[in-house]
Amino acid sequence: MSQAYTPPKVWTWEQGNGGAFASINRPIAGATHDKELPVGKHPLQLYSLGTPNGQKVTIMLEELLAAGHKGAEYDAWLIRINEGQQFSSGFVEVNPNSKIPALMDRGGPEPIRVFESGAILVYLAEKFGNAFLPTDPAERAETLSWLFWQMGSAPFLGGGFGHFYAYAPEKIKYAIDRYAMETKRQLDVLDRRLADNEFIAGADYTIADMAIWPWYGGMVMGWAYEAAEFLSVHEYRNVIRWAEQLHARPAVRRGRMVNRVSGKPESQLRERHDASDFDTKTQDKIGGA
Ligand SMILES: N[C@@H](CCC(=O)N[C@@H](CS)C(=O)NCC(=O)O)C(=O)O
């Protein structure tokens, strides 16, 4: 049982509380320093990191390119959130919430900024003729419902379960129990849905799959928080079937490599500025830290 804590009347910020992200967590929004963001040659400029939230967008961009949408060529710049790069003045202009992913579309007369991964997926789908977003009202509603389900649910998985199981400076049984239960319930929601449907929204592969796979697919593939055994993820057989099916898609594999800074060197394409970068610029080819 962890030490009892009686909250004071007024909360105050104690910097360096021992948590894994103590150096970047802060109770104040806005920029901490002046720095412009780099701009590459393509209309679409992505500022991101290869976390599950970042992967959603790079998977979508790679799927768009694979489907023949040449206008989806993009520059993906690395934002190192553990170094506080999300608090630069340039980044805050693209996302006032200082979180990756953030997209700037410079293809039109005025640049358009888009933040929040779900909003970016919808923006890109609409920009490219409703790609991976059905136009039939019922199918579109189902797709958007699952997309928003992901946006609302994943913070319980990542910020709740992952944080208290893997990152918190002490293991708090109450917190781990609460979020393990919720994460398992969410996995069961998906498992039941995928028992009767090939993809999340039904018969078609959509942006809902792209949003859900990096989090929940990653969990059942055993990639998240070293928690596969703890959460008995083998129970979710339909989610595993779907996760493996998506992982077999070349665009999903490429999307998972972009802005990645951990894992095998050949799986890390830290910045992507051209389709050929996958062949020539992975960490095993360019080396370095
Ligand atoms: N709801 C946001 C969440 C984005 C998010 O939480 N990004 C994390 C990395 S996965 C981040 O940038 N964290 C930096 C910080 O909290 O300072 C989205 O889906 O875009």
Description of the molecule:
The structure is a single chain. With about 290 residues, this protein is α+β, with helices and mostly antiparallel strands. It has a domain at about 135-255: Glutathione S-transferase Yfyf (Class Pi), Chain A, domain 2. It has 10 helices and 4 strands; from the N terminus they run E-H-E-H-E-E-H-H-H-H-H-H-H-H. It has helices at about 50-65, 90-95, 115-125, 135-165, 175-195, 205-220, 235-245, 250-255, 275-280, 285, and strands spanning about 45-50, 75-80, 100-105, 110-115. The protein has a 4-stranded mixed β-sheet. A hairpin with a 6-residue loop joins strand 3 (about 100-105) and strand 4. The protein is globular, with a radius of gyration of 19 Å. The N and C termini lie far apart (about 40 Å). The relative contact order is 0.14. Bound molecules: glutathione (GSH).
Poorly predicted spans:
none
- The third-level CATH topology of the domain at 137-255 is Glutathione S-transferase Yfyf (Class Pi), Chain A, domain 2
Please state the second-level CATH architecture of the domain at 137-255. Up-down Bundle
**Helical amount among residues, as a percent range?**
40-55%
- The CATH class of the domain at 137-255 turns out to be Mainly Alpha
How would you state the average pLDDT, rounded?
96
Which ligands accompany this protein?
A: glutathione
Global outline:
globular
Enumerate how many helices there are, as a single number: 10
What class do helices, strands and sheet pairing give? alpha+beta
Termini, distance in Å? 40 Å
Kindly provide the radius of gyration, computed on alpha-carbon positions and rounded to a whole number of angstroms: 19 Å
